[in-house]
Each structure stands twice: as structure tokens, then as C-alpha cells.
């Protein structure tokens, strides 16, 4: 597994909101089922002293980190505040921030991610389902029952597409080491290349599925640097140009990021690309 | 959201970049141009690529301006009606430059492009003479562009252009722009002018600049936006509802690959409840070309029983094909089968059925 494990203590920001409180409960249910530490603190400014599903809430990330043994944070805060939360988490000395939040202004992401990396803090997301390592830890919103533990890493720009593929892999009897939702925004913290680098250091992972989509060129960049065997799927091959397909980052501009061209470039680097999601398990089996 | 030319130029002017003397007018409103403008450029304020070549930019002597304006208001530029016009003093052009700032996604930083070969299509310059284009990143936590970066960009061009680059960078960073472009940036005997300006704002940052409505959306896209959907109109006859951008996109792709024609892309978003699903189905139900609707939902936080109730509540006339998996799947399926809906277990089966039903 990569980025975090059973021993990781997690802080949830936006703890008292609907989403935050719902997912604290789910993450801790999972932590209990695998004997992990899970969420040890929540943060909502002005609500310090309260509890959410038995988890103590603090006014700031710094306070939470001082009072509880935690090294990572998951953000459910609104888009207008999330950039600041990323920097606050990096300032509090955390190693990892998972930003679930969608609709963060791109300039905020650009500055916050740069700042966090400068402080030695990895950012996963924003606009992502988070990190899930079967049998170890859930840091985000991925449904636990679809996953199973095994030798395949999954890196994805999209939430439900990830669930679909994890579901297919599990049904085919192929387990996963870690599933990383890197996010659907134009600028994200950990890229395909970064997550592939982490998987390369993980002895359990033997091959990686990368789930990309139109927009940008992070898939090709990752595939070129990959040390492990990789299978890819790219969504948006039939999307109209200059239209944003749901994700802020899923847009072809000035010819850059076209999904069909992206697939061609991936194939040139020797990466098998699945035309359909249902082909992924058999393609990955050939690499194991 | 794309700014119109006159709006972009107002922003540039406030930042201290000189723009040609001029007047912005709306259709049906009386106007008067100062006689100091002897020769004018009359420009349609439409979002059309290649506006000049399509007849959206006309030249006029002072006494011909009213006639030219009338002519342009009565014209359509590539099918787009002209509602607003910018009348500007014609510049005495000595040289044209190209300048733009955007975001480099893999470097996670603002990237500045500058070339002394402005006034033309930048992609054309990139192909014919790539060495003429200078490109530099700026560290995103800096508010001032370092001198060495400016010197590299200018490549011997007049130094005062460096000040324009710095001002445009300030606009880019303070306005939450995803593109700020001046093409051409014009050198005249009187100094530098932004003869054209293009600014695109980040849709996620409109609220903090006091903009409440994104003009770039069509009426149907606006309705969808109000319900929290991501929606793109396409031209086929199979309505598509999915949850999550990637899965919905993959559904649209699979329809196309199997020979069908998707009518739209609609991502209901995470945790969609009965009411939102009913809205989504009704929205597609109202599209005249839609013959069949495919609902492909994989529930994580989305509950399948809520989705099923929403589909039934919408009560549209078109055939609906459903693929549901995940949280409360059994309850959702039971609800739908009691009403006789066609349900399939995998995404591929569902898409095949939809393509057949629509052909």
C-alpha cells in the first residue's frame, strides 16, 4: 500500500458538515473492521470542543495536530476555503492532505499545492474520491465493499469510474494494493507520475491501472516514467472540443488533451489501452 | 467564463495597459462618436473564432461610422447575431506582438508566451517558426515576474513591453483568469496599445468577483447547473444520465463506439436523491430528439432506492433503461421491476440495449 496505512492518524476538516460527519463515521467503521486508527480528530472553526461520532472537534488543524497523534488530513471544506485548508495542513506539519472538495478556484489550488509541496506535504486531489487501501485504510469516500486486497494499483482522475473498474477487478478475482483518486481538476497535487513512483516502491504492487480522461497530458507523462507495467483507459474519446465534460479539467483546448491523441501517445510508449472498461481485468492479468 | 472584448479591455485599462480610444454600444441605443476619431475600427462583440475574416470587423471613416454600425448590427457573424459593438480609433501600427498568460497543468504554474510575430494565429507561428515564440513559467507564489524571466521573454524586443507583461500578469493573478491574452499588442508612434484583448475567468471563482451568472451556459445547461448537474448537449437521440464525470463520459463513449448517438452528457453528481434524479430524467424527457434514456449509476454515496424512486416519479414518456449497482441495489431494483422498467446488470449490456432501442 502507499501514502498511508493502519497506523496513520487522520484529521477530517469540515467535520461538522453533512458530508464530513457522514464520512467520519464511514471511515471509522472501516478502520474498526481492519484494526486501524482511522479518524482521530475533526476540525471546524468555531465548533471546537464538540464531538462528531465520538471524534473530538478542534478549531484549527494546528490545534488538532497538537492534541492528537495525526499525520494526514481529509478535506470536506467548501471550495472557497479549501486552498487555505491545504496550506494550513502543510503548516501544521502533516505529510499528506486528501482534498475531496470540488470547485476550488484553480489559482487557489496552484498556490496551495505549490506551498504544500514546498513544505514536504503531499496533496492528493482536489476534486477526488480519495485514497483507499483494502485492509489498511480509507481516506475519502470510496465504497469499501467493492474493493479486495491484491497486487494491482489503481490511479484515477474520476470517482465512479474508479469504482466501476475496482468492481470489475474484484469480480475477476484481481485484488488491489491501493486505489488513488488523484482528482478531476486542471491542477492536482499528486499526478499519475507521482503515484506511479510511490507504487514502484511498494513491494506488494505488481502492475497498475491508470484511468484517465481528456484534458492535459498527465497520463502520457506518467506512462513514460512508469517502472511498473501499466494498463490504461481514457474516457472522453467522443467528447466535443472546447466543452467541459463535468470535471473542470476534462476539456480539450487548442488541440491539447484530445483523448484519441492521448491514447495514440500511450500506445507508442508501449502501454496497452483498453477500448472498454470490461477489457481491463484481462489486460492486467497478462501483466501479472 | 469568457469576457467580451470590451469587458476584457476595461480590465486591461484599469491595470494600466493602454487601449485604443473607443466606445461600446448596444443595439438600439443611440450613440455619438467624437470627431477626434477620424478613422474607426468597428468590431462585433461576438464569441466567434476568426471574427475578422468572418466579416465581424469593419473599417470606417468618421462620417461612415453610423452606416457601418447599422450594417454590422444587421449582419450575422457565422450565424451569431450582433448585439453589441465596439467602435475604436484606428491605430497607426508599426509592429504587432503576441502576448498571453495561461496555466501549465503539468508544471502547476502560470506560463507566459510572447512573440514578436503577433497579429496572426499563434498556432500558425508555432508550426512555421517555433523559435520565434518565447515561453516562460513564473513561480505561482510570486507577484512580480523576475527580471531575468522578462529579459528572456522579450528576446531583444523593446523594454517597455516588459511593463505590459508584468501588468497582464497582475491581471491574470488577481482576476482568477485561466487565460489573459493580448493579440495583437501594437507598437505605434505613440507607444504600446492592446488592440485586442481576451480574458477567460475561472468558473469556480466567479462569485468572488461579484459575478452571479455564468453567461457561457445554454438555457438547458443553466437549468442543469441550478440542480447541481454537469450537463453538455450533444446531437443524438439517446439520453444519458450517469453519476460521476468519468463514468458518464465512458457511457457516452461506449454508446458512440457501439454505433449509437448520445443526446447529452449529464452527471447527476454524488449523493443524488429522489428529487434530483427526477429533475434529471424530466430534463432529458423534454428534449424532443431523445427516444430512449439510459441511466447508469454506480452508488457509493448515491442510494439506488432513491434513484429508482426518482426515475418512477419523473414519469416521462420515453423508454428508460437502467443499470444500478452499489448501495441499496436490491431495494432499488425491486422498486423498478415492480413498475416494469428494463434493468440490466452491466454497463455494456445496458448501453447495447439503449443503442438497439434508439435505432
UniProtKB/TrEMBL annotation, chain A:
<feature type="active site" description="Tele-phosphohistidine intermediate">
    <location>
        <position position="247"/>
    </location>
</feature>
<feature type="binding site">
    <location>
        <begin position="16"/>
        <end position="19"/>
    </location>
    <ligand>
        <name>CoA</name>
    </ligand>
</feature>
<dbReference type="Pfam" id="PF02629">
    <property type="entry name" value="CoA_binding"/>
</dbReference>
<dbReference type="InterPro" id="IPR005811">
    <property type="entry name" value="SUCC_ACL_C"/>
</dbReference>
<dbReference type="InterPro" id="IPR003781">
    <property type="entry name" value="CoA-bd"/>
</dbReference>
<dbReference type="GO" id="GO:0043758">
    <property type="term" value="F:acetate-CoA ligase (ADP-forming) activity"/>
</dbReference>
<keyword id="KW-0547">Nucleotide-binding</keyword>
<comment type="function">
    <text>Succinyl-CoA synthetase functions in the citric acid cycle (TCA), coupling the hydrolysis of succinyl-CoA to the synthesis of either ATP or GTP and thus represents the only step of substrate-level phosphorylation in the TCA. The alpha subunit of the enzyme binds the substrates coenzyme A and phosphate, while succinate binding and nucleotide specificity is provided by the beta subunit.</text>
</comment>
<comment type="subunit">
    <text>Heterotetramer of two alpha and two beta subunits.</text>
</comment>
<feature type="domain" description="CoA-binding">
    <location>
        <begin position="3"/>
        <end position="104"/>
    </location>
</feature>
<feature type="binding site">
    <location>
        <position position="163"/>
    </location>
    <ligand>
        <name>substrate</name>
    </ligand>
</feature>
<comment type="similarity">
    <text>Belongs to the succinate/malate CoA ligase alpha subunit family.</text>
</comment>
<dbReference type="GO" id="GO:0006099">
    <property type="term" value="P:tricarboxylic acid cycle"/>
</dbReference>
<dbReference type="InterPro" id="IPR017440">
    <property type="entry name" value="Cit_synth/succinyl-CoA_lig_AS"/>
</dbReference>
<keyword id="KW-0816">Tricarboxylic acid cycle</keyword>
<dbReference type="GO" id="GO:0000166">
    <property type="term" value="F:nucleotide binding"/>
</dbReference>
<feature type="binding site">
    <location>
        <begin position="100"/>
        <end position="102"/>
    </location>
    <ligand>
        <name>CoA</name>
    </ligand>
</feature>
<dbReference type="InterPro" id="IPR016102">
    <property type="entry name" value="Succinyl-CoA_synth-like"/>
</dbReference>
<protein>
    <recommendedName>
        <fullName>Succinate--CoA ligase [ADP-forming] subunit alpha</fullName>
        <ecNumber>6.2.1.5</ecNumber>
    </recommendedName>
</protein>
<dbReference type="GO" id="GO:0004775">
    <property type="term" value="F:succinate-CoA ligase (ADP-forming) activity"/>
</dbReference>
<dbReference type="InterPro" id="IPR005810">
    <property type="entry name" value="CoA_lig_alpha"/>
</dbReference>
<comment type="pathway">
    <text>Carbohydrate metabolism; tricarboxylic acid cycle; succinate from succinyl-CoA (ligase route): step 1/1.</text>
</comment>
Automatic annotation (TrEMBL), chain B:
<dbReference type="GO" id="GO:0006099">
    <property type="term" value="P:tricarboxylic acid cycle"/>
</dbReference>
<protein>
    <submittedName>
        <fullName>Succinyl-CoA synthetase subunit beta</fullName>
    </submittedName>
</protein>
<keyword id="KW-0547">Nucleotide-binding</keyword>
<dbReference type="GO" id="GO:0046872">
    <property type="term" value="F:metal ion binding"/>
</dbReference>
<dbReference type="GO" id="GO:0005524">
    <property type="term" value="F:ATP binding"/>
</dbReference>
<dbReference type="GO" id="GO:0004775">
    <property type="term" value="F:succinate-CoA ligase (ADP-forming) activity"/>
</dbReference>
<keyword id="KW-0460">Magnesium</keyword>
<dbReference type="Pfam" id="PF00549">
    <property type="entry name" value="Ligase_CoA"/>
</dbReference>
<dbReference type="InterPro" id="IPR013815">
    <property type="entry name" value="ATP_grasp_subdomain_1"/>
</dbReference>
<dbReference type="GO" id="GO:0042709">
    <property type="term" value="C:succinate-CoA ligase complex"/>
</dbReference>
<dbReference type="InterPro" id="IPR016102">
    <property type="entry name" value="Succinyl-CoA_synth-like"/>
</dbReference>
<keyword id="KW-0436">Ligase</keyword>
<dbReference type="InterPro" id="IPR011761">
    <property type="entry name" value="ATP-grasp"/>
</dbReference>
<dbReference type="InterPro" id="IPR017866">
    <property type="entry name" value="Succ-CoA_synthase_bsu_CS"/>
</dbReference>
<keyword id="KW-0067">ATP-binding</keyword>
<dbReference type="GO" id="GO:0006104">
    <property type="term" value="P:succinyl-CoA metabolic process"/>
</dbReference>
<keyword id="KW-0479">Metal-binding</keyword>
<feature type="domain" description="ATP-grasp">
    <location>
        <begin position="9"/>
        <end position="212"/>
    </location>
</feature>
<dbReference type="InterPro" id="IPR013650">
    <property type="entry name" value="ATP-grasp_succ-CoA_synth-type"/>
</dbReference>
<dbReference type="InterPro" id="IPR005811">
    <property type="entry name" value="SUCC_ACL_C"/>
</dbReference>
<dbReference type="Pfam" id="PF08442">
    <property type="entry name" value="ATP-grasp_2"/>
</dbReference>
<dbReference type="InterPro" id="IPR005809">
    <property type="entry name" value="Succ_CoA_ligase-like_bsu"/>
</dbReference>
Amino acid at each position: 500500500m502507499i501514502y498511508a496505512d493502519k497506523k496513520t492518524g487522520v484529521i477530517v476538516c469540515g467535520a461538522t458538515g453533512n458530508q464530513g460527519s457522514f464520512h467520519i463515521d464511514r471511515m471509522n467503521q472501516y478502520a474498526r473492521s481492519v484494526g486501524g486508527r482511522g479518524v482521530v480528530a475533526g476540525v471546524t472553526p468555531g465548533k471546537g470542543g464538540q464531538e462528531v461520532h465520538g471524534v473530538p472537534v478542534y478549531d484549527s488543524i494546528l490545534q488538532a495536530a497538537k492534541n492528537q497523534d495525526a499525520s494526514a488530513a481529509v478535506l470536506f471544506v467548501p471550495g472557497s476555503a479549501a486552498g487555505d485548508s491545504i496550506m494550513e495542513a502543510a503548516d501544521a506539519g502533516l505529510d499528506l492532505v486528501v482534498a475531496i472538495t470540488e470547485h476550488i478556484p484553480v489559482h487557489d489550488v496552484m498556490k496551495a499545492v505549490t506551498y504544500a509541496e514546498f513544505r514536504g506535504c503531499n496533496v492528493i486531489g482536489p476534486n477526488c474520491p480519495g485514497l483507499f487501501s483494502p485492509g489498511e485504510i480509507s481516506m475519502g469516500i470510496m465504497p469499501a465493499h467493492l474493493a479486495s486486497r491484491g497486487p494491482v494499483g489503481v490511479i484515477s482522475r474520476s470517482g465512479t469510474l474508479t469504482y466501476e473498474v475496482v468492481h470489475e477487478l474484484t469480480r475477476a478475482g484481481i485484488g488491489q494494493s491501493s486505489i488513488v483518486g488523484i482528482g478531476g481538476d486542471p491542477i492536482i497535487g499528486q499526478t499519475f507520475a507521482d503515484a506511479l513512483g510511490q507504487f514502484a516502491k511498494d513491494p506488494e504492487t505488481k502492475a497498475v491501472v491508470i484511468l484517465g480522461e481528456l484534458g492535459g497530458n498527465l497520463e502520457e507523462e506518467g506512462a513514460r516514467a512508469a517502472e511498473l507495467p501499466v494498463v490504461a483507459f481514457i474516457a472522453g474519446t467522443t467528447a466535443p472540443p472546447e466543452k467541459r465534460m463535468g470535471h473542470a479539467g476534462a476539456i480539450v483546448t487548442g488541440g491539447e488533451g484530445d483523448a484519441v491523441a492521448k491514447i495514440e501517445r500511450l500506445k507508442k510508449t508501449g502501454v496497452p489501452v483498453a477500448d472498454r472498461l470490461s477489457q481491463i481485468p484481462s489486460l492486467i492479468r497478462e501483466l501479472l | 467564463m469568457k469576457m467580451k472584448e470590451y469587458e476584457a479591455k476595461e480590465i486591461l485599462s484599469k491595470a494600466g495597459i493602454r487601449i485604443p480610444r473607443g466606445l461600446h454600444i448596444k443595439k438600439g441605443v443611440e450613440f455619438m462618436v467624437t470627431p477626434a476619431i477620424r478613422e474607426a475600427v468597428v468590431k462585433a462583440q461576438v464569441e466567434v473564432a476568426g471574427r475578422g475574416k468572418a466579416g465581424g470587423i469593419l473599417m470606417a471613416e468618421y462620417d461612415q461610422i453610423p452606416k457601418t454600425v447599422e450594417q454590422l448590427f444587421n449582419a450575422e457573424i457565422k450565424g451569431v447575431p450582433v448585439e453589441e459593438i465596439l467602435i475604436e480609433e484606428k491605430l497607426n501600427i508599426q509592429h504587432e506582438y503576441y502576448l498571453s498568460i495561461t496555466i501549465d497543468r503539468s508544471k502547476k504554474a502560470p506560463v507566459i508566451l510572447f512573440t514578436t510575430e503577433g497579429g496572426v494565429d499563434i498556432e500558425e507561428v508555432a508550426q512555421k517558426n517555433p523559435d520565434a515564440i518565447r515561453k516562460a513559467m513564473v513561480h505561482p507564489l510570486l507577484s512580480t515576474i523576475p527580471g531575468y524571466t522578462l529579459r528572456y521573454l522579450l528576446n531583444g524586443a523593446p523594454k517597455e513591453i516588459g511593463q505590459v507583461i508584468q501588468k497582464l500578469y497582475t491581471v491574470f493573478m488577481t482576476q482568477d483568469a485561466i487565460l489573459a491574452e493580448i493579440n495583437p499588442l501594437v507598437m505605434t508612434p505613440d507607444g504600446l496599445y492592446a488592440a485586442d484583448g481576451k480574458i477567460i475567468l475561472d468558473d469556480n471563482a466567479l462569485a468572488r468577483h461579484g459575478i452571479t451568472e455564468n453567461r457561457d451556459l445554454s438555457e438547458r445547461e443553466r437549468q442543469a447547473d441550478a440542480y447541481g448537474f454537469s450537463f453538455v448537449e450533444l446531437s443524438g437521440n439517446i439520453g444519458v444520465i450517469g453519476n460521476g464525470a468519468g463514468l458518464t463520459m465512458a457511457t457516452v463513449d461506449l454508446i458512440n463506439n457501439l454505433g449509437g448517438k448520445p443526446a447529452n452528457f449529464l452527471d447527476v453528481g454524488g449523493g443524488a436523491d429522489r428529487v434530483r434524479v427526477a429533475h434529471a430524467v424530466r430534463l432529458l424527457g423534454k428534449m424532443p430528439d431523445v427516444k430512449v434514456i439510459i441511466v447508469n449509476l454506480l452508488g457509493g454515496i448515491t442510494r439506488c432506492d432513491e434513484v429508482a424512486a426518482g426515475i418512477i416519479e419523473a414519469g416521462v414518456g420515453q423508454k428508460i433503461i437502467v443499470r444500478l449497482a452499489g448501495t441499496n441495489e436490491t431495494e432499488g431494483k425491486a422498486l423498478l421491476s415492480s413498475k416494469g422498467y428494463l434493468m440490466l446488470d452491466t454497463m455494456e449490456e445496458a448501453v447495447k440495449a439503449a443503442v438497439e432501442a434508439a435505432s
